[in-house]
């Protein structure tokens, strides 16, 4: 995975949305989340900040 500074905002949103969908469907969490945080998107953002999301994007250049 590239450092989070090298992603465009569109790539960031795509990764966060995909990870939030995985979390909402029961995927194991990669960070410790308190009981008060139950929103999958917030958990995905926490994972993004700790750079533990196991996803990457592929850029295509013509």
Walkthrough of the structure:
- The chain is an all-alpha fold and 62 residues long.
- It has one domain: RNA polymerase subunit, RPB6/omega (Eukaryotic RPB6 RNA polymerase subunit), CATH 3.90.940.
- The chain is 42% helix and 0% strand.
- It is built from two helices and no strands.
- Helix 1 packs across helix 2.
- The longest helix is centred in the N-terminal third of the chain and has 16 residues, at 9-24.
- The protein is elongated, with a radius of gyration of 12 Å.
**Share of residues in helices:** 40-55%
What is the beta-strand fraction?
Answer: under 5%
Report the average pLDDT across residues. Answer: 90
Unreliable stretches (pLDDT < 50, length at least 5) are: none
Structural class: mainly alpha
Main sheet: strands, sense, barrel: none
What is the number of helices?
A: 2
**Given this structure, which CATH class is correct?**
Alpha Beta
CATH architectural grouping: Alpha-Beta Complex
What is the fold named in CATH at topology level?
A: Eukaryotic RPB6 RNA polymerase subunit
Q: What series of H and E elements makes up the topology?
A: HH
Write down the overall geometry: elongated
Our measurement of the CA-to-CA distance between the termini, rounded to an integer number of angstroms, reads 23 Å
* Cα Rg: 12 Å
Number of separate structural domains: 1
CATH superfamily: RNA polymerase subunit, RPB6/omega
Counted beta strands: 0
């Amino acid at each position: 995975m590239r450092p989070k500074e090298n992603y465009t905002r569109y790539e960031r949103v795509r990764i966060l949305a995909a990870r939030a969908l995985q979390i909402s469907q029961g995927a194991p969490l990669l960070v410790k989340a308190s009981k008060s945080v139950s929103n999958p998107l917030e958990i995905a953002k926490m994972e993004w900040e700790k750079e533990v999301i196991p996803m990457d994007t592929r850029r295509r250049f013509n």
